[in-house]
Amino acid sequence: MRLATWNVEWFDALFDDAGHPLADAAPSGRFGVTREEQLGAIAEVLRALDADAVLIIEAPDISRHRDGRAALARFASRAGIRACSALAGFPSETQQEILLLHDPAVLKAEHAPSRLGAPRFDGRWRIDLDLDGLPEPVTFSKPPLEAVLSGFGRSLRFIGVHAKSKAPYGAAGPADATRIAIENRRKQLAQCLWLRARVSAHLAEGESLVVAGDFNDGPGLDAYEALFGRSGVEVLMGAGEPGPLFDPHAAGLHPATTARFRSGPAGPGAGPGEGPAFGPVEALLDFILVSEDLRATGPRWRVWNPFEDEALAGDAGLAAALVAASDHFPVTLDL
């Protein structure tokens, strides 16, 4: 069984309102990459992953006029990707959805929202983060996808996550950037505490559990972490608590980076010369965390980063596709 997670940058911008791919020479959200080139690169990477289920972060929008599930399923089927059935959970408030592409011939995936340990992820949770005795409301703009995967001789619970970004977008100056960055980290940490409450409750029920996605955080990622003691990912892992989760990259056992950003992203529709080339900004943001019972089976993780994986670097076509497709690289887990 191969599971994967992948944040595909501006995937929504590659489809029209009817869900048809925009395979043309117009610029994509990737600087210097056309929509046709990005669509081709995404298809090539997904075929290479050959995953039984792949969590797509920043998946196409689901709204009154767009159906990201149909768009993604149509794209996968036309591209020859066997994981061509798309599962959605609660809708996002943004144009970035969390969808699970899976192979219906191999497994069954069902949306299974829970209230164990904490409110549903489309609701509101109150937590006293600053210890002033006044709990503050926390919400998800992109509610995590909760699924049960079955049909392969066992079942497991799968939670897909796109946590709050800590980037200080819209800052008016250095001081404002610091304020926004700290506020965003507090929100991101609160979301991870909410997730941990759910994780602990499911583990107490004896369930096998996988938590995957883009957490916009990682151990030692930035200086603000010292203000809060632990990163959001470390909170979610539950080190020192009953029922820890494990990912070797999060645990620091294998150095890796899953994202490679420009110093100033151009955004969707930017033309040639409207954004800088890649800057030296790399980070470990994407993880697949597993419960202890799954860890005991000897799973294998891989970060599909051609700048760090010699086998990928040796495949020029796939390496180029990985760079053209997104500013994140996929992570796979073989169970």
Describe this structure in words.
With 335 residues, the protein is α+β, with helices and mostly antiparallel strands. It has one domain: Endonuclease/exonuclease/phosphatase (Deoxyribonuclease I, Chain A). It is built from eight helices and 15 strands. The protein has a six-stranded mixed sheet, covered by helices on one side. The protein has a five-stranded mixed sheet with strand order 5-8-9-10-13. Strands 6-7 form a two-stranded antiparallel sheet. Strand 1, helix 1 and strand 2 form a beta-alpha-beta unit. About 4% of the residues have low confidence.
Summarize the structure.
25% of the residues lie in helices and 22% in strands.
Topology:
Layout lengths: L1 E6 L27 H15 L3 E7 L8 H11 L6 E4 L8 E6 L5 E4 L13 E3 L8 E3 L6 E6 L5 E7 L11 H31 L4 E6 L10 H4 L3 H6 L21 E4 L15 E6 L2 E5 L1 H4 L4 E4 L6 H4 L2 H10 L5 E4 L1
Parallel strand pairs: 1-2, 9-10
Antiparallel strand pairs: 1-15, 2-4, 3-4, 5-8, 6-7, 8-9, 10-13, 11-12, 14-15
Radius of gyration: 19 Å
Provide the β-strand percentage band. Answer: 15-25%
General shape: globular
SS content category = alpha+beta
**End-to-end C-alpha gap:** 5 Å
| CATH topology annotation | Deoxyribonuclease I, Chain A
Beta strands, count: 15
How does CATH name the architecture? 4-Layer Sandwich
